[in-house]
Structures are given as structure tokens and as C-alpha cells.
Amino acid sequence: MAETKSGFDVRGDVISGENADSKEHVYLEETFYILTKKKSVFRVRLTSKGLSLIKETDDVSKEQTILLRDIIGSKCMRSKRRRPGAGSCVCSSLVGSQPLKVVDENSGDLDESDISAYLYIYAYILKDGRRVRKRERTTITLRFRSYDKYEDNNKEAQKWRNTIKCLIVSQPVTVSLPSNDKKLLVLLNPKSGPGKARELFQTKAASILLEAEVPYDLHVTKYAQYAREFVRTRNVYAWRGIVAVGGDGVLFEILNGMFERLDWQQALAEVPLAILPCGSGNGLARTICHHYNEPYIPQNLTGMSMALARGKTTHMDVVRVETKTKIMFSFLSVGWGLLSDIDIESESLRLIGGQRFTLWALARLVGLRKYKGVVSYAKIKDISTLPKPKFPLTLSHSVSQDGTLDSPDAEAFFDCDENSDVFTHRENGKRHQRVDSWYSVNSRKSAFYSTRGSEYHSVTSNGSEMRSPVHVCMHGPASHLPALMSQLPSHWTHEEGEFVMVHVSYQSHIGEDLHFAPQSQISDGVMWMLIIKAGISRSQVFSFLLGLNQGNHSTANDEYIKMIPVSAFRIVPEGPNGYLTVDGELVEYGPIQAEVFPNLVNLIVPDTK
User: Fold this and answer.
1) Cα 500 to the chain's mean position, in Å?
2) At 308, is the secondary structure helix, strand, or coil?
3) Three-state DSSP state, 11
4) CA triplet 381, 376, 501: central angle to 5 degrees?
5) Phi, psi of 231, rounded to the nearest 5 degrees
């Protein structure tokens, strides 16, 4: 990425007030002189819109505004001590080709002869390229030296820095920096996609978090379900958010680990989730970029890393999925047939990244399969009339049957039975019943560590930090559906026969190049079910796959292909052979049903204000 750096010398007084020429509020304004051009000045204003740079040269004025949403942070620096014989005084470092060298104000290597204070402002500006839009890193350097002492110049620089910080996090402007001592929890799967997650995070995301002064704890997953165990057993309230670095599978683990907590509702309400796409599919990250007009470039984490720095959140729907032996929660899709076959069978090609799906799609097109079964669904007649749920939801299932509210501080013991939908909760000597829980696998006891971050972690396998209950139970909202093998409501639609595929998505994209549901929103209470019936020709299937890139398939509605908005569904396959996937993860083959719960999760997204 290209980088621009502007150096200004400063003179003038700070002006605070309302700009008469616009409605935006002006917080600070000063005049900066360009050292290389005596008749050129920059009038710099910090406003509610952003950083306005007005260049005035020989009665010619040009203005550029760096939008506030593109600024991620700022830092006060001092000039670095120059070694004997290294050249002229550091004050001339802005002249000619010699770069300005600065150090932290507390460094022992600073040049005390230079009383200037330098304010670095870091921004990533959207640029329209020949082929794609992308973000370009820009560093604005403002030099404060109006006073005879460094302390006074630094005070002026700090005033600008504090104001920028407050505006970035949408807090009232104060004389001190807004404080947030909590770090981000980063859970990174080094084997996601082509196996470059660790490298991408360190080279793309870490530098942006450093510039934004956002601390983080980085933990590298060591085995399957590591992230799930981690969030289930830790005090997640100690972090400002949880970031999944990898594919959609890492976030799937984190989400379900949160629902395995007794305090799941409070945890999801107070601790937002986020994703940095380093996998093969990256459906959720592509969806977020699509809805927030953020450029999506594979293996470029700039936009999503900026979202982590700014911390804006939105609400996301979650889908409760039930099979014969398990309950899980999903944020992306449920699939049966063609697309699930491609996803699972192409695992051996994951090292080539997203291209694995294209190659295997061609193979499956040649050997087109069909599956027999029954597909049932509750159709939404008019998605425009759906009510907008309030957040946080008040869910009656979070209260035990005797009215005792589950608390994250409650001492609980579990007695789970894999053949029962009811488990007992013992608190203060009383036993309470709770519905909709299931027995899961025994959790592992293992070490964890951080390869890099604000803190390093290291414990032995005998340590207590990763210990879990022997039996893990799934909590979360209670189902409104009949039991999986029970009769469905009379208003449901049933389709029986042979199918090439049934795929249900609740995000616009299910992959980087798969624009599956163009009408979908991140939080709208709608699932989009695509049904392709057997009897369709290979050429029609090929056209369908091509149309997935642009979402053109969504308008198809004929005897073979149709897209239906639903609030709940059930799929009952016949026969023992086939694949069922939830968020790209393989689940047991057999009856499966699901329903959507709107606005259940806080999701970190780009700031578009």
C-alpha cells in the first residue's frame, strides 16, 4: 500500500467553535507552515466530519478532508537524537529527502535540543483503483513548536490527540484520553484455509491495532474445539471483545462455546464477537464488508482490522439447529446436497484457498447427485412486515422453572443425561430443571499460550485455567418447534421427492465469491432457503453456479429452482449417505431442524458514519 507523509511547522492559536460555512462542529483549528515552501500554508481543522486540510499557495486554495471514520489513531512523538557526523540539525529533517526520525516521548534516545512536539495521525483512506476500491495508508505529521519549551508544545499536541481519540470512540471530548483498559481476545487458528492466518495477522492486523493503541491477548489454537473450550471456561468479561482469526469455523466454535455458559445471555450482550478472514470460505466477513460498503480483498485485513480499532457493533441473528443428538447455534448456513458435498469433499485441497470450491464444483457437476427426502418450512409471506426486535431480548428461558435467575456467579453442578432433554441444576442445595440442554463430549485439559500480544500466557497441562466440567451442556434460547421427530404445525409447507440440494443461508454471502442471498440482512429474522430439485439439467446447474458470484440466481423461480424466505425449517433425508453442514462444519446425517432468533449477538463491524 502506498504511504503519504506530510510534515508541517506550526504557528497560530487554537480556535474552538462553530464553523460558519458548514454545519459540522469545529473542535480545533491551527495554521501550519510548510518548511520547503515559504508561501505555502495548511489551515488544519479538526471537525465532527474529520480532518480538513486547506492548502493555500499564492492565492490558490485546495481542500482535502480525511473522514473521521478513516482515522484509527494518533500518537505524540519527539525527534530522535542524531549521531555525530550524521548530517545537519534534526530541525532540517523535513527538508529535502531526509526522513524525519522520531521516538516515543519517554525514550532515552530523543533529541532534547529540538523542542518540537510531533503529532502523528494514522488513517486508511478509501481510494478508487482501476479494478477495485482499496484503502491506502496515510500518515499526517503535525509539528508543534509555537512555544519555547517542549512541555508547552507537547501540551498543544496532546490536546489534538485527546480530541481525535474521543471522536474516534464517539465519546464526549475531554482533556484526558478516553480509557478502556480491557484488551481484545484474539483466538487464531493457524491451520485455517491455506495456513497463513498467523502470518496475515502479524503483517496486516497487528500494525493497525498498534497504531490505534488497542491492546490484545493472542492465543493460538492447538486442537479442534480449543476456542470453544476457551470461551466456555474463562472470564470473558475481562476482554472488550473476542476476535476469531481464521475461517468461519473458528467463530462457530466461539459462538457455541458462549452458549455452553450458564451466563450465555449476559456474555453475548456484553462481549461482542468479531472475525478476521483468513480461511477458505470467509462468508461472514464477506457479508459484513458487503453491508458496510467496505472493500473486500482476499488476504487483506485492513478494513476488518480498522473495525476492531474503532469498536462499532451491530446485532446479528443466530439460528438454533437441532439434530438427533445435538443442539448447536449457527450464524451462516445449513446445507444438504451439492454445496455441502463441494465444501466437505474439497477439504483435501484447502491449501489452495478458495479455489478449492471451484475445482470441486466442476467435479460434482460431472457426477451430479440427487438425494431423496422431505423438506418442510414455515414460509414468511412478506418480509417487509416483519417487526424489528428490540435488543437485548427478554428471554424467559434464562429463568429456571422455580424463578431463580441463572447468574454468572452462581455455583453450579451438572447432571446431564445424553438420552434426555432435561438436566438438573443444583444451587444452594436445591435442584432445578432446565429444558433444551444436551450432553456433549468431555472437554480436554490442555495448555494454552500466546505467541505475541500485550501479554504472554503459559501454563502446564495440569493447570486449572482450562479445566471444564466433565459434562458440557448447551444452553441458549428455548426452541419454539416441536421435537425433531414430532408432527409439524399445519401451516408449514412440505415438499417430498428428490433434490440436488437444499441450502439455507441467513447471510448475504456464504463464501468470498458466493453471493447467496442478496436480500438478506445481518439482523432481519429471515432465513433464505434455496431448493434445487432433481431433474434439472447440468447446464442449468452450471448457470446457477455461475450466477452465485453476482447473486443472479436469487430471481430464479421455476419448477426446479426456487428461493424462499423462511423462519424455520426441517430436512429429513432418506438413506444413510450424504453430507449435512452447519456453517461449513460437518454434522451427523439425518433429520435436522432449525429456527432463527433475531438480534442475539453483538458483532463488531466497520464504522460507516
Assistant:
1) 32
2) helix
3) strand
4) 105
5) -75, -25
Left (φ > 0), alpha (ψ -120 to 50) or beta: where does 420 sit?
A: beta
Q: Judge if the upstream peptide bond of residue 84 is cis by omega within 30 degrees of 0.
A: no
70, 111, 248, 583: the active-site residue: 248
> Would you call 57 helix, strand, or coil by DSSP?
strand
Q: CA-CA distance, 84 to 87, in Å (whole number)? A: 8
Do 324 and 484 meet the contact criterion of CB atoms below 8 Å apart?
yes
Q: In the prediction, which pLDDT does 170 show?
A: 86
DSSP bridge partners of 495: 375
307 vs 273: CA distance, rounded Å: 11
In angstroms, the CA 150 to CA 112 distance is 9
Based on the residue annotation, tell me whether 9 is a catalytic residue of this protein.
no
Helix, strand and coil percent figures for the chain, each rounded to 5 = 20, 35, 45
Give yes or no for residue 226 having a pLDDT over 80: yes
Average pLDDT taken over every residue of the chain: 79
Contact 601, 315 (CB under 8 A): yes
Q: Is pLDDT at 366 greater than 70 in this prediction?
A: no
Phi, then psi, of 475 in degrees rounded to 5: -105, -150
DSSP 206: H
Q: Are 564 and 592 in contact (CB under 8 A)?
A: no
Q: How many helices (H) and strands (E) does the chain have?
A: 11, 27
pLDDT grade for 405, boundaries at 50, 70 and 90: very low
| Angle at alpha carbon of residue 262, lines to 260 and 263, rounded to 5° | 110
What are the DSSP calls for 110-173, one per residue?
B-TT---EEEEEEEEEEEE-SS-EEEEEEEEEEEE-SSSSHHHHHHHHHHHHHHHHHHHTT---
Q: Which residue has the cell 479445566?
A: 467
Q: What does the pLDDT look like over 525-563, one tens digit per residue? A: 999 999 999 989 888 888 887 877 777 666 666 789 999
pLDDT of res. 433: 35
Most distant pair of Cα atoms in the chain: their distance: 89
Show contacts of 515-518: CB within 8 Å, 24+ apart: 515/290, 515/548, 515/549, 515/550, 515/551, 516/333, 516/548, 516/551, 516/554, 517/551, 517/554, 517/563, 518/551, 518/554
pLDDT in tens, 131-167: 889 999 999 999 998 899 999 999 999 999 999 999 9
For residue 173, pLDDT over 80 is answered with yes
What are the CA-CA distances from residue 542 to residues 20, 214, 300, 362, 371 (Å)?
59, 46, 30, 9, 18
List, as one string, the DSSP characters of 508-541: S-SBTTB---TT--SSSS-EEEEEEETT--HHHH
- Under a CB-based contact definition with an 8 Å cutoff, are residues 222 and 191 in contact? no
